[in-house]
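Title: Prediction job returns without error message
Component: structure pipeline
Severity: low
Priority: P3
Assignee: unassigned

Description:
Job completed but the reporter wants confirmation the result is attached to the right record. Sequence as submitted:
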Amino acid sequence: MNILYAASEARPYVASGGLADVAGALPLALNAKGHDCRVVIPLYKCIGEEMRKDMTFITSITVDVAWRKQYCGIFSAVHQGVTYYFIDNEYYFKRDGIYGFYDDCERFVFFSRAILEMLRVIDFKPTVINCNDWQTALTPVYYQIFYKYQEGFDNIRTVFTIHNIAYQGKYGKEVLNELMGIPMYHANLLEYDGNVNMMKGAIETADKITTVSPSYAWEILDPWYSHGLDRALTNKQYKLTGFLNGIDVESYNPATDDALTEPYQHYSVGDMAGKLACKRALQEELGLPQDDQPLIGICTRFVAHKGIDLIRYVFEEMIHDGFHFAILGSGERVYEDFFKEMAWRYPQAVSVTLGFVPQLARRIYAGCDMFLMPSQSEPCGLAQMYAMRYGTMPIVRETGGLRDSVKDAGGENGTGFTFKTYNAHDMLGACLRAKGAYENPEFWAEIQKNAMEADFSWAQSAELYLGLYRELESWNQG
């Protein structure tokens, strides 16, 4: 099957978040199963010369942006057997950064249409185009309105994946005419709550809608999670489903991880001796006492929806209960200041590193006993899966992908500790249950084994996506 994966970022070329991880890993897993999945992204300035030297110029075309005709260069490259296409326009993409510009709407209107125009000049006709988030949300809209009945565009099915519903591509109605070139008799596809909403357009026109975990798929039908889109989704829930993202199980492997150099040690589910050595090495690196108190890791962005308010509310109580903390992250000033103050007041119990240090994050996964993720909302979440891979027990709120990936140790085959309500003392209760289990070495070893043996590989996720793609393919044959 031919699949075109359309995204605004993809590893290894450009990344700002989880979308790039998915766009880099899922096509690889689909190709490993014998299919031809290719990726299309913009050719940003930040894609360096080292990456560009392997690119081949295919051709240049023009793309309509309402009444304008804009240059579009098309390049290709192959990385790990996956073909990547790059959409070039220096006016739109030769900038410092990839998002956050005054004309983001125009930039991604251009990109969404260029994805379809590109199909006229490359030797690849997809059975399915899988679009991601608002930056490619207009591709299924344009296909439905302009391309569906054109020669060479027949029988293409579209899938739209929502990674985070908070970012919807909302603009004033004037963009319909000025930028999108969409006839007014189709305006209802995009109009929503007095604005133009690009994500709503994809929800209306795509053949299937997916999210990055099963729980998130039904949570976003609830106004508390949907950021206003619940009414549009409720009407289209017959085509909504959710598949849990995978992780790179080769890279995140305590038996081989390059971040675990001396005095850290490698370990595996069959030989856990190195786990304690990693804890001792982490304590030494972070200036924490070399003791057996339960060490909790936190690697996150310091923003409200990550549940930082819950942590703040009971943080000192947790310190008095005997917990120590290894904290890594950055974000809102109020949270950064709070954690810095805690590290100053309790230097024997709290280490805080501001910023994002990938190697340190891996050492925290390996060296901590527990990993805290009390998110208010979490479409998928990857950190809890990384932590389980390293035998570090996640403590999570039951929301989105956290609910789907962590089984509470109070039941059979537990892989961590969960709590339901968004409440600081419920979180504290889960932490204290984890501490009780930690003090029972036999039970703790059993939970660690369950967690480390859980399969979060992309092969699992790819099979679910393939089932959806095959269903869409069968529509053409039926």
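Comment from assignee: result matches the submitted record. The radius of gyration is 24 Å.
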